[in-house]
Amino acid sequence: MAYAGDVLLPQGSFRDGQFWDEFFEARKGRPFEWYVEWEHLSLLLAHHCGLLPSMAPQSQILVPGCGNSELSAQMYDAGFHHITNIDFCQAVIREMLHKHARSRPRMMWRVMDMTNMQFPGKSFDVVMDKGGLDALLGEPEEDPTTGRLFLSEVRRVLKPGGRYACVTLAQKHVIDILMSNFRCGWSLDVHEIPASRGSSPSSLSPFLVIIRSMGSSIVPSVNFFLDEGACHGYKEQLRSLEETIEEENRLRLEDKHESNGLCHLCNLSNERDLVTETPNDFKKLQPGRRATILLGGSGQSQSAYRAIMLDAQDSGRPVYQCAVFLIPKGKAHEWLFSSEEGQWKVLESAKTGRLIMDELSLLLKDFLPASCQGHHSVPYLMSDDGIRKRTLLEEIDSSMTGRMFVEDVVLSKEESLGIKSKEQAFRRLIFKRNPNLIQSEALLNVERMTLKEYARGKGKETSHRCAKKRITKVEKDAKQEELKVDHSYLASPYHGGMVAGLSLIASKIEKWLLSKEKIGVMVIGLGAGLLPMFIYKHLPVHNIQVVEIDPVVGDLAKRHFAFVEDKRMQLQLGDGVAVVQALADLNHISSAGSCLHILLIDVDSSDSSKGLSCPPSEFFEEPFLQASKKALVEGGMIAINFVSRVTACYELAVVKLCEVFQEVYDLKIDDEDVNRVLFALPQASNFSENLSEISTATENLCRMCSKFSSWDHGPDLSYLLRTLKRLK
User: Fold this and answer.
1) If you count DSSP H runs as helices and E runs as strands, how many of each does the chain have, helices first?
2) Closest Cα to residue 641, out of 690, 606, 607, 674?
3) Rounded to whole angstroms, what are the CA distances from 597 to 344, 505, 512, 662?
4) Closest residue by Cα to residue 196 from 172, 169, 171, 224
5) Strands 520-524 and 479-485
6) CA 105 – CA 594 distance, rounded (Å)
7) Residue 553 has pLDDT above 90, yes or no
8) What 3-state DSSP class applies to 693?
9) How many CB atoms are located within 10 Å of the residue 47 CB?
10) Inter-residue contact 412 to 423 (CB < 8 Å)
11) Between the CA atoms of 177, 181, 186 and 190, what dihedral angle is there, to the nearest 10 degrees?
């Protein structure tokens, strides 16, 4: 049996997301507290962790494995507003967002794996962990790998001088791992938590371990503080803890004497793949070899850093014998650069026999092949976004999405989506949590107007008198330029792919129009509103419902991308999964039938640590797919924007779709097999993949759209569907 405070913990694996989904669903919103509450911790954290009211406005705090504990809310109410909560359980993050988004708007909630966080290094002043490490480490005989990975992430995200506060039952295997991971340059204090025993039936009492980054290579002793006024009824636990700490301090003292104060006890537990070969071992390429090499020192030396070395698996003739890829600053934690699969993809793109990936490009000569040593033949590679000019229009924080940027960019001619006659300007929406993914991109047109017209258009911002003064200062025929979003142009290729995929049900659309059936479209994920605005302008549909969970995103779309709401287009703030489920339930009990014909999923994932950038994995879970099927009318269709570099993610998504839907199609968007659009139909359509039928269907769709509105700069549907493939 396991206990947290006075609550019996459920049986199962604490590392299993499904386990926690079921657990929190069963609690129906009732908070679940591990061990102790804020009232037991506040004084200790204030005195020993720097969480003082005077420091509240500046303190960036991370709460990993937050669950539905009230701790974060109580800290927020105590004045600590810069709190970021993460948990890999999607259900509990949704629950906490709905509970706190309005009353505590500056607090952040993210679905994220605490063993592979998506934050830049040195982001937080305090990491507040209440039971998270205990849950990861489990019992003494269990594999400690996930616990070690979590502690490695804690070290990475803490600022210099930052503190890790860990509430734990202080079992020997947990304390051992804590002390071995925080030796060189870290102070470690263990505090008994006053009045924390309560009515817990457990034989163990929780302790607070406070670990502080000292920014040096010294190995300080571990300190143990007992509450003098407490009645220590858990003597066996105390005795074990005291013995463990004494043994650790003896080990640290011996190391200091043997090394003249230098640190030999630096944590090497996470260095399992560090190379042990001598420089001579790297003279030759060894196909398929991957090694993490330590440069400039060893262990936790302040001058040491890591690089990844890969030798190509293919024995063909590479463009380069060896190349160095400079990882963009602050992006080393991203899947493409941190995972083994992502690193092999970088090597493949670089077309080199050996690739060394690092951030500093120093001290690499010992790891070059013999053919590259002694001269300067090693190229340095880096990513290039092709941007000639960038103008930041707005930067804003949201408690749901995090930091967002709206920017205008001018692309170099070769990057202007095939339009080479002149440079093109685009407006972009980017989420900081997924910086390599352009959330939305709109083509900007320059509209020229007389200054009088310009002043009239700006009437809301300037008085008529001011406008008149402005006109008199220039010639009467002067023109003023203004950038406007072109809603007839889909700059994002996958948006064009989603529209082109409607050709799969072109005959159904025609039937609905002829019978005067009101066609309903739902778009989950607003972004900048470019896809729904294109549908609004060019497709003969009667109602467009856009579902967006974050009101800040809605405001940005209206302010910068000319998104509109009216009787034909409505924006609904809410969880897309819940909205579709509610619609499916309504169809089940109503005799009126569904009014949803087309469902488009265009949502990014808040946790891309597993390589899935779009959509969140819950959109491929059976409950949502079954609800989508029930919500659609007969002959309807669902289209999902899918972005992942991980083959397994794609294969699993296809399997899930094929289990629920009658027909499934794949549309490849890019040459790297990263971006695809997946289409699923509840009923058989007998649509053929042959070019003749695709051409006929796209022509039919274009004809219907042209009757509604001029196609203008709309996409070439037949060209986009050239890679369409039926999977089921």
Assistant:
1) 21, 29
2) 674
3) 42, 10, 10, 16
4) 169
5) unpaired
6) 36
7) yes
8) helix
9) 12
10) yes
11) -10
pLDDT digits (tens, 9 = 90+) for 94-129: 888 888 888 888 888 888 888 888 888 888 999 999
Tokens of 141: 């005989």
Q: Is the peptide bond before 160 cis (omega within 30 degrees of 0)?
A: no
Distance CA 598, CA 389 (A): 38
Mean pLDDT across 695-712 = 85
Task: Return the closest-CA partner of residue 596 out of 705, 512, 528.
Answer: 512
Q: Which residue has the tokens 């790891």?
A: 367
Residues 434, 402 contacting (CB under 8 angstroms): no
- Name the band, by pLDDT with cuts 50, 70 and 90, for residue 544: very high
Position 405: which residue type?
F
Residues contacting 262, CB < 8 A, separation 6+? 217
Indicate the Cα dihedral angle 346, 349, 350, 353, nearest 10°. 90
167 to each of 71, 129, 207, 223, how far by Cα in Å?
A: 12, 6, 6, 16
Instruction: Answer yes or no: pTM beyond 0.70.
Output: no
Nearest to 111 by CA among 650, 622, 603: 603
Fill in the amino acid letter for 73.
A
The residue type at 628: S
Average pLDDT over residues 291-315: 63
Alpha-carbon distance of 86 to 212, in angstroms, equals 21
CB within 8 Å of 655: residues ≥ 6 apart:
none
Where are the extended beta strands (E) located within 241-313?
290-295, 305-311
Q: Of 605, 638, 632, 641, nearest to 497 (Cα)? A: 641
Percent of the chain at pLDDT > 90 equals 27
Give the full edge-to-edge strand order of the sheet including 320-326. Answer: 290-295, 305-311, 352-358, 320-326, 380-381
The pair of three-digit structure tokens given for residue 178, joined into one six-digit string:
């804590």
Closest Cα partner for 659 from 631, 695, 629?
A: 629
Helix (H, G, I), strand (E, B) or coil at 638: strand
Contact of 627 with 590, CB cutoff 8 Å: no
Could you tell me whether strands 108-111 and 83-87 are parallel, antiparallel, or unpaired per DSSP bridges? parallel
Is residue 98 classed as helix, strand or coil in its secondary structure? Answer: helix
Structure tokens, 682: 């509840």
- Determine the Cα–Cα distance for residues 704 and 698; give it in Å rounded to an integer: 10
Distance CA 501, CA 641 (A): 12
**Radius of gyration (C-alpha) of the chain in whole angstroms:** 29
Bridge partners (DSSP) listed for residue 406: 394, 429
Q: What is the dihedral of CA 625, 631, 635, 637, to 10 degrees?
A: -50
DSSP letter string, 365-413 = GGGS-GGGTTSS---EE-----EEEEEEEEEEEETTTEEEEEEEEEE-G
- H or E stretch at 469: helix 464-472
DSSP 19-78: HHHHHHHHHTT-----S--HHHHHHHHHHHS---GGGTTT--EEEET-TT-SHHHHHHHT
Q: Where are the beta strands (DSSP E) in 574-625?
A: 596-601, 612-614
In sequence order, what DSSP letters do the residues of 532-583 get, joined into one string? Answer: HHHHHHHS--SEEEEEES-HHHHHHHHHHH----SSSEEEEES-HHHHHHHH
Q: How far apart are CA 553 and CA 541, in angstroms?
A: 24
For residue 521, which amino acid is it?
V
Which amino acid, one-letter code, is at 412? S
CA-nearest of 423, 419, 548, 415 to 489 is 419
